[in-house]
Amino acid sequence: MPSQRPGIIGRILGPFWRAVDAARRFVLNVIFLLLVVLIAGLWFAATSKPKLLEDTALVIDIKGNVVEEYTGSAREAELAEALGGEARETQLRDLLAAIDAAAKDDKIPRIVLVLDDMGHAGMAKLREIAAAIERFKSSGKQVIAWASSMEQRQYFLAAHANEAYLHPHGAVVLTGFGGYRNYYHDALEHLGVTVNVFRVGKFKSFVEPFTSNGPSKEAAEADSFWLNDAWEGYTGEIESARHLPAGSIATLIADAPTRLAATGGDMARLALDEKLVDGLKTRDELRALLTKRGKPDTEHKTFRQISLDDYRAEIVETGDRNQQVGIVVAEGTITDGNEPQGAIGGRSTSELIRKAREDATVKALVLRVDSGGGSAFGSELIRRELELTREAGKPVVVSMSDVAASGGYWITTAADRVFADPATITGSIGVFGMFPTADRAMDKLGIHTGGTTTAWLAGAADLRRPIDARLASVIQSTVGYIYKEFLEHVSQARQIAPEKVNEIAQGRVWTGRQARERGLIDELGGLEAAVRAAGAMAKLAEGFRTAYIEAEPKGWSRILASMPSTALRSAVADLGIRFPAVGGAGEAAERLRRDLAWLATVPGPQGAFAHCLCEAP
Predict the structure, then answer these.
(1) 24 and 261 in contact (C-beta within 8 Å)?
(2) Which of 48, 57, 469, 509 is most buried (CB neighbours < 10 A)?
(3) Residue 204 annotated to the active site
């Protein structure tokens, strides 16, 4: 039997390697223990927060896109911000809660809106924030807004402040709503790709970028109708807030070249001359102004202030835990299965609704919708779960955010009442399917296909071959059937005759104001109005509690969720961990990616789509 003794190299290196391995494990264990001790210490330190002092300004520095809920959990968002140094999202609910709490807080005499890092926010969300600002102002307190430069979304909020300031080298850029999108017909022809389209609804324009070189007459007509209504609402509200003559914004844009030339090309001076802002100030000049009006913070050489995150952590939840209105957020594109927070899955969102229904403390449900639609099957799963909730005796109220169109409208048809903002984009009651084939591209490359099947359907969905006319007939029949179902749901929910629904459907998009005129929604109002209505329908006493129904965190997310947010931010900061922020693709590239992603979809029994080619302006 051969010897099992290690060779000379093994005898020499073995002890060395074991020593290295032991040292590695010892160092890792020490680091782990240090992390545990540090986080635990910060955790306990967070419970002894410094007392909020008199005359403290609430600084609301809106970071990233304004969303209904974070993509991932709130703690994951905070950790990503701490590690990357850049917040990508701000929750609308946090903004509203902080502003409304500050209105009742004697220690907060003013809010400072800093708008430099604000990303995308649709008009419905902006109007929710503006309404909260007006409530704060009505309490006799002051709102001051500032930015280096302002585009339309930022300026809408600044216009509602008592005072709006701009950097002397900045600009207020008002351009109007609408824009241009890519159309790929000629490019796809050049590549030899055929996009077979199946749709119901003459205004259902989602498929047009793949079949045309420009918008159809119907699409242009519909877009012009709702865009002009939305723009009139935007300019009218700004002119009212800034006490400007009606029509002054339209006149300014029309005469922009002449008026700018009169200032020598000074965009900031133009904004001041046109009374869009109250003054031009650098950041240090703004700081000096606020220090003079408030109390100085000598330690940090600035004015006494508290950030949005820190103040949000100060707010104590009130209300009876046994008398709650639950809020489920449906935000993003609708798919069939499970999706993480910040997206809509037919199964995962249905589970949240079911969770609310089975919770004895939740007496009514508000579904907050911000979606242009997606899978018709996923939409039906959610609609059915809402229907079951109503049948269980719990009122269901829908609150439409920026967009609740197509599949996003489908899921609202099981509600007792539907609220929308005047600027909400809704409707788009239509269905489509797309089936791309690359047989001509294969021919150009000299590649051919062949084979044997036992029935025509076995190879009918092969993208390498021309679409079989029988498959085309099946898909069109399926799309037509789902459109008919859509009309029936709307007809029953809105108490409108099916033929009348068909007239206002056809895939056409409306603003919330226009939808109200056509009976597609019940009332104009925001989330607060929807919650009040749900509470009244459930006969809840004043002071009831609201609770967002979200998926239970698991694993690492559960650990993060259990930590106070101040402790989490402090822990990461003290550890000095920094990762570079991940840069996203440009807007045009991202739009191209989203558009072309739909070419990979193959309609089937669950593959028809209720999605609108629309987004919040």
Answers:
(1) no
(2) 509
(3) yes
